[in-house]
Specification:
By secondary structure, this protein is of the alpha/beta class. It folds into two domains: about 130 residues, no CATH class; about 230 residues, 3-Layer(aba) Sandwich (Rossmann fold), CATH 3.40.50.1820. It has ten helices and 20 strands. It has an eight-stranded mixed β-sheet with strand order 2-3-5-4-6-7-8-9, sandwiched between helices. The chain has a five-stranded antiparallel β-sheet with strand order 1-20-17-14-13, with no helix packed on it. The termini are far apart.
Length: about 425
């Protein structure tokens, strides 16, 4: 009975805001940027301009003293925190670059660094031994705290780590994966929704979500794992409950690809580090609500789930929960949306259609200005672009701008996030 009541309360809390999601607007008006003399790029030269901007960024970054020092020392510093890491390059480079696996260790709070150091050493080979191809990076939590992997400084460090791997290790930006066990699972729960646009997929093993909201996982596939008897902090129950939350979101919005594995007859630890079939509950939701312990044999190795997915950096539709962000990051963008960190409430749902040259944006309780970033994959600059914002329609003529292109190229250091114009929405 405890499990059923807990589930009903959680789903009720989830469903109430979703029922009204995106139904109320704040009267946002799209404002076209003023063209800067000399910065306009002709439509015919956009591809060349993007390549030039990316090459210029690489040429500027690769000799940079901080990049060279931090990659040689395998330690990245932001503010007062330093994240150390180990790196292995495994197998032959695929045509589009290596997949990158960022792995986070267990441990957490400790009066000395010994436990986290030991767990980090284990994680530096934990998921790597069964890998056949990829860049495997095991990160060491920045402090010996319960939130060791998601202290405020952690988020900008992950941004920089991914940028470094793209620049120096031939990593495919559309195949960056996040995985973690125990305290590392806590880290996946914290990081994935706040940085979903960075990753192609994620795996959470034996962690706790600590109440995180899930809307930002709309485009990020995620595998959830826990042991049947992992009762500390109700990790077993909460993992299954959050799997059902994702089921509900998928029913309402589409997207929200996920898989929930409750490991049969296991506690906190189980075999998720190799490509071997292991017993997991046939239906995690049925186990939660009815104690149905029927099981099936399943490969739970995180890369085998994650490798099935590549990131689409410009999906036709996105959902952004502005309350679920890491305001310590130096980027204000999420996919092709952007907002200052003072805009920290509400939901935005955005969709574009290049064929009709139309952008539709719906908001709910958004408390400040935001912007949409656009490039020629998303719109045709040769025609006016129609914006429909909370039901109000307007048309704007937009010009590709070299300054926007250079700024967005540098902001995330990702060639898939290069944009040629930025339209602001104000109340």
């Amino acid at each position: 009975m405890k499990r059923i009541i807990s589930l009903i309360v959680l789903l009720a809390a989830l469903t109430v805001p979703i029922a009204s999601a995106l139904a109320t607007g704040a009267g946002f008006i799209p404002v076209a940027p003023d063209p800067v003399p000399g910065n306009t790029i002709s439509v015919e030269n956009l591809a060349a301009a993007r390549e030039e901007a990316w090459n210029s960024y690489r040429e500027r970054m690769l000799p940079d003293g901080m990049l060279r020092r931090e990659t040689e020392e395998e330690a990245i510093t932001f503010g007062e925190a330093t994240m150390r890491y180990t790196l292995q390059v495994i197998g032959n480079k695929p045509e589009n670059g290596y997949p990158l696996y960022i792995a986070m260790h267990g441990g957490g709070y400790g009066e000395t660094p010994d436990e986290n150091d030991s767990q980090w050493e284990i994680m530096s080979g934990y998921y790597a031994e069964a890998l056949t191809c990829g860049v495997y990076v095991a990160v060491r939590g920045v402090r010996d705290t319960w939130d060791t992997h998601f202290n405020p400084e952690s988020y900008p460090i992950y941004d920089r780590l991914i940028q470094y791997m793209i620049l120096t290790q031939n990593v495919d930006p559309n195949r960056v994966y996040l995985e973690g066990f125990s305290a590392g699972g806590d880290g996946v729960w914290a990081i994935a929704p706040r940085m979903a646009d960075r990753f192609a997929a994620a795996n959470m093993s034996s962690g706790h979500p600590n109440g995180v909201q899930l809307y930002n996982l709309y485009r990020l596939p995620m595998q959830l794992q826990a042991g049947e008897y992992d009762e500390a902090y109700d990790r077993n129950l909460v993992t299954a409950e959050y799997g059902l939350k994702l089921d509900e979101l998928r029913e309402l919005f589409g997207g929200f690809e996920h898989r929930t594995l409750i490991h049969y007859d296991c506690g906190h630890n189980y075999e998720d580090f190799d490509r071997v079939p292991v017993p997991v509950m046939a239906d995690a939701g049925a186990w939660l609500t009815g104690q149905d312990r029927r099981y099936v044999m399943t490969d739970s190795f995180p890369p085998d789930y994650m490798d099935a997915f590549a990131r689409d950096p410009l999906p036709e539709s996105v959902i952004w929960d502005l309350s679920t962000r890491a305001d310590s990051r130096l980027t204000e963008s999420f996919y092709y949306l952007s907002a200052p960190y003072t805009t920290n409430q509400g939901l935005i749902r955005a969709k574009y259609d290049r064929m009709t040259n139309r952008v539709v944006i719906e908001t709910e309780n958004v408390n400040g200005a935001f912007s949409i970033l656009l490039n020629e994959r998303m719109i045709d600059f040769a025609r006016p672009v129609t914006f429909v914002v909370d039901g109000t329609e307007s048309a704007l003529t937009l010009a590709p701008d070299r300054q926007v292109l250079e700024e967005t190229t540098a902001e995330r250091g990702d060639p898939n996030f290069q944009f040629e114009t930025k339209v602001k929405f104000i109340i």
